[in-house]
Prior knowledge:
Elements lengths: L10 E4 L7 H7 L4 E5 L4 H4 L2 H11 L3 E5 L8 H11 L6 E6 L1 H15 L5 H5 L11 E5 L11 E6 L4 E6 L7 E4 L9 H19 L7 H23 L4 H14 L13 H13 L3 H16 L4 H12 L6 H18 L6 H5 L7 H8 L15 H11 L1
Helix pairs in contact: 1-3, 4-5, 7-8, 7-9, 7-11, 8-9, 8-12, 10-11, 10-15, 11-13, 11-16, 12-13, 15-16
Amino acid sequence: MNGFTFWSPTKVVFGAGIAKLTGKEVKEFGGTNCLVFYGSGSAVKSGVLETVIKSLEVEGIKYSCVGGVQINPLLGFAQKAVDDFKDKGIDFVLGVGGGSVIDTAKAVAHGLASPEIPIWDFFSQKVELKKSLPIGSVLTIAAAGSETSNSAVLTNQELGIKRGLGTHFNRPQFAIMDPELTYTLPPRHTACGIADILMHTLDRYFAPDAENALTDELAEALMRVVIKYGKIAMEKPDDYKARAELMWAGSLSHNGLTGLGQTMDFAVHQLGHALSGKYDIPHGESLTIAWASWARYVYRSDVPRFARYARNVWGILNADDEAAAIEGIVATENFFRTIKMPVSLTEAIGESCKNDVEELADFCTYHQIRTIGAFKVLDYNAIKDIFAAMV
Length: 391
């Protein structure tokens, strides 16, 4: 096991009906003037935004609300919010929604702390992020794990690029997590969330220096739970236990716990970011499109690892490692189909995508200046082959 530092400082407040505690948490972490972000309307329709606002008023906290965050958080939207509120005395930023809303809140918090620096300079790593405003989250979808993670992503529409930023400044001060808030999600959103949770662990599990007993067992258990309760949540949207298990799994899958002591791969996420940047595909769908093509390309780098995954997560009994590895890939792909997620780019976009393989590979490699992955390092030509296998 490699040495590691595990730091997960986010305070988790979990349970039914707890959005009313949001104002108390904002106040506890020093907020007096809060900028609240939400999405395209579900926060309003469900009543959670009203509950959050009332809780801020009870605690005497000033607030401003900005709605309209899209499924792939946009640089332009976040930068405009910084420009609009940089002189308003904001001292706390709150995201009420899923990963896109919370990531937008993170980006704006960074921008408000240094309004003279364009946000994209941080995400493109042109400028090192050295300070931010405190962030809180009220989670309404089990998916990205942004509520407890050190990660955030933004899409630059002008460049057609989606990039992530990892920094301890991205860690929210608190996460309000009420599984009941996910009951009314459209099935597609629930399915995208299930895929994202699985992939946050899979992109850690397939590492070149894995075989850490406890980390592996935690990862495998989490994936089994997501598969079991993901199916139940798709069939019974108001099943509290299923929703609760998924919500907690989403946080644990991306706070670092399931990859401790080993190198993260995250090639599938990088492939998916290129798809989302090009086609505005929901993040979860980009992952289910990319995973099996990536897996079939790389599995021979460590056949026993893929065989272990097949046996311990999917219960595959085949004694032959290579056969078991292939069955595990197929089982994963079939699970994605079961929850009605696309497993090919043609399925999601249509035949026109066949002409985009080279452009996608160019986007993914930042115009052929980087490789991706650690389980198997992938260069431009390898990435191009994987994209070609997706169509």
